[in-house]
What we know:
Elements: E1 2-6, H1 10-20, E2 29-32, H2 38-43, E3 49-53, H3 62-73, E4 78-82, E5 95-98, H4 104-111, H5 120-130, H6 137-143, H7 148-165, H8 171-182, H9 191-211, E6 216-217, E7 221-225, H10 232-243, E8 247-253, E9 260-267, H11 277-283, E10 287-290, E11 294-300, H12 304-312, H13 326-329
Parallel strand pairs: 1-2, 1-3, 3-4, 4-5, 7-8
Antiparallel strand pairs: 6-7, 8-9, 9-11, 10-11
Helix pairs in contact: 1-4, 1-5, 1-8, 4-5, 5-7, 7-9
Amino acid sequence: MTIIFTHLDGDGVCCAALIKMIPKYQDAYVYFTHPAGLKHDLSSISGDDIVICDIAIDLRKQQSIYALLEQFSNEFSVIYIDHHAQPDGMPTNVVNIHDQNVSATELVYRFFYDQLPSWADHIALLGAICDYLDNSPLMQRLVHHYERRTLFLDAGFLAQGLKKLGRRGHYEKLRNLVQEFSSGKVPSDIKELTQAAIAATKADNKKRPKILEQYVSEKNIAWIQDPPSMSHSKIAHWILGNSGKHIGLVIRTLNSKRQLVDITIRGWRKLDLRTFIPAIAMKMGGSAGGHANAVGCRIPQKNLKLFLRILDGHEVFNGIEPVPSVEELIPLKPN
């Protein structure tokens, strides 16, 4: 049997759905994981082919993860498909498909293209849209197979519905969702998913005004700590846009590990967050990874204030034009 390790967001779910469309993998078991948990989850299996999708390598655990992958790849098939920054040293026996410029779903679609049904392009597009990576040449070409507004409706149902269905303890529901996508259904076909998406959106609309009253603005960043339970990436986007700062952060104290905090970070396209935030996190005794404008990190709670101070005063902001205000962009000039 093959085990598919994947992330539990829209990109990861669509990766798994595409793979399970292939006859060889239709009975594969889907295991939802994340960068901090990958080593533990890999250690819990034995004797299986593996496909890993949309999971960044935690730099603190790089050597032990690569050692496990080398051990598996000496006896079994191991395919690693990812679009996060990847450290050197991936074992040579691992089939490593890596590109930071596109979604993991697009990489899966391209790698298995000859084995996929024609309608797999719909799921490929949904995964890319959910990860804000639908502007690649291939995805822009595939958009014309459908209609942009209906695609974005389905992508919205998926992204918002996963806020409820993707919670811990709901993994079996997620596996069922993957199975339905792999059999040809799309989000708008699935009543439980659409209802969850509508409920999540209504809750977002109620919480947004309160959250925008609570964040803290610094010189270059804006942040909030332990906001109401909801999508941290969404809150980071709200803070980023509302504050007009270069970076928006959401800090969450871990209930199971009170000495640690998880930080969700979003930035304007003028910055590549990967070029400086992981280094700061490492100095703080933590780790970080992600994409140019979307990074997550985990650091010790005791170093949080220092992290924020160093980040806000970082030299990367020197010489960067301020984010224009809405008022600056409003005026019209008569023809």
